């Protein structure tokens, strides 16, 4: 579906999507507190060979009205993380049987589509993977079920999610999977930094205008924006920010059929706008972020970059997957952190991503 027709389709059908029946939640998933406590217990008790935890020091750094979170991997256990997405010999680490030490749910929400497992190399406490039970490729587009279930997940853990669409976005495994982490894993246990705060200020955003009437979309669910700082640097992206009505729907798991259908159509519109897919396959690598407040897509150029020529000479690469667009930067070198503080981060780093 081309961009204009996808946009027109949502405008025409958004009211009917809002009338979809509620999702019947199984009893074991109704109590979010119990679910979160179970996740916490599993993460704490997981064997270190199955959940390989690095020693991470978190630091905030503010520049140009953006409060970045810099995560310094003081003891880096992610360096042994395999990147097998393009290996000739096919390996699928998410194929069953799944080790019971990391398996949170064999059938997430009893909907038949996804397993929920602990991330082997977490950058955040209680970071999880929502993995397709039947094999589907990480290089194929997302489906309604992927979007619906990731909304159920971020509600259940009170967090946010991302998808690495292709190797240049940070994808390293071939089976389709989305990732999520709870806000309590952030410093101060809340999301009062990064893009979470940045997009709340309309002065940071530029509303996008289109040739067709979008009153239904604007009135019922929200508006399309670009982030001014990213647009000024020619970083290809598009963001949809939910209005208050849609925001309330997003937080209620019983509405997941509604919000899933709406966000799935938004996802298709955002991807069509950026020319992400050719048919069902990824044409351009991309990062997708989903929260209860917005859905955001950025076209990617690279995942491994050098901040400076000096870093290139030392072969000091910085790896930035989709969490970079939460304005979270992960570094393995103290010198890189000092370098980040001395440069224009958006111009000198994000234009390379």
Q: How would you describe this structure to a colleague?
A:
With 353 residues, this protein is α+β, with helices and mostly antiparallel strands. Helix content is 31%, strand content 24%. The protein has a 10-stranded antiparallel beta sheet with strand order 3-4-5-7-6-13-14-10-9-8. It has a 3-stranded mixed beta sheet with strand order 1-2-17. Strands 11-12 form a two-stranded antiparallel ribbon. The model has no long low-confidence stretch (mean pLDDT 92).
Q: Strand percentage, roughly?
A: 15-25%
Which residues sit in consecutive blocks of at least 5 with pLDDT less than 50?
none
Mind telling me which CATH architecture this is? 2-Layer Sandwich
Helix content: 25-40%
CATH structural fold name: HIT family, subunit A
The average pLDDT value, as a whole number, equals: 92
Query: Globular, elongated, flat, extended or rod-shaped: what is the shape?
Result: globular
The name of the CATH superfamily reads ATP adenylyltransferase
> What is the CATH class name?
Alpha Beta
How far do the termini sit from each other?
A: 27 Å
Instruction: Round the Cα radius of gyration to an integer and report it.
Output: 20 Å
Number of strands: 17
Count of helical segments? 12
Numbering strands along the chain, what is their spatial order in the largest sheet?
A: 3-4-5-7-6-13-14-10-9-8
From N to C, what is the helix and strand string? HHHEEEEEHEEHEHEHEHHEEEEEHEEHH
Structural class: alpha+beta
Number of domains: 1
Describe the biggest sheet? 10 strands, antiparallel
């Amino acid at each position: 579906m081309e961009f204009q027709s996808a946009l027109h389709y949502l405008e025409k059908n958004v009211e009917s999507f809002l009338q979809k029946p509620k999702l019947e939640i199984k009893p074991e998933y109704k109590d979010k507190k119990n679910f979160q406590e179970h996740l916490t217990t599993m993460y704490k008790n997981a064997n270190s060979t199955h959940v390989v935890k690095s020693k991470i020091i978190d630091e905030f750094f503010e520049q140009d009205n953006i409060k970045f979170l810099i995560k310094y991997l003081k003891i880096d256990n992610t360096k042994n993380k395999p990147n097998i997405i393009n290996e000739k010999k096919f390996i699928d680490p998410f194929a069953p049987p799944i080790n019971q030490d990391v398996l949170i749910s064999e059938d997430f929400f009893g909907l038949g589509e996804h397993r929920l497992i602990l991330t082997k190399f977490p950058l955040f406490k209680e970071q999880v993977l929502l993995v397709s039970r039947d094999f589907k490729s990480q290089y194929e587009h997302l489906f309604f079920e992927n979007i619906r279930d990731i909304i159920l997940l971020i509600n259940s853990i009170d967090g946010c999610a991302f998808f690495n669409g292709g190797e240049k976005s940070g994808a390293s495994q071939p089976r389709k999977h989305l990732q999520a982490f709870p806000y309590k894993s952030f410093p101060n246990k809340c999301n009062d930094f990064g893009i979470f705060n940045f997009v709340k200020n309309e002065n940071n955003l530029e509303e996008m205008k289109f040739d067709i009437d979008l009153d239904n979309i604007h009135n019922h669910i929200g508006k399309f924006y670009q982030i001014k700082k990213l647009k000024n640097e020619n970083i290809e992206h598009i963001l949809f920010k939910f209005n208050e009505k849609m925001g309330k729907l997003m937080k209620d798991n019983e509405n997941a059929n509604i919000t899933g259908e709406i966000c799935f159509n938004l996802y298709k519109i955002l991807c069509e706008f950026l020319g992400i897919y050719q048919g069902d396959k990824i044409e351009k690598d991309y990062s997708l972020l989903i929260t209860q407040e917005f859905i955001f897509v950025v076209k990617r150029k690279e995942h491994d970059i050098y901040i400076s020529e000096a870093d290139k000479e030392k072969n000091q690469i910085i790896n930035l997957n989709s969490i970079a667009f939460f304005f979270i930067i992960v570094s393995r070198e103290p010198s890189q952190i000092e370098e980040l503080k001395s440069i224009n981060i958006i111009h000198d780093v994000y234009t390379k991503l």
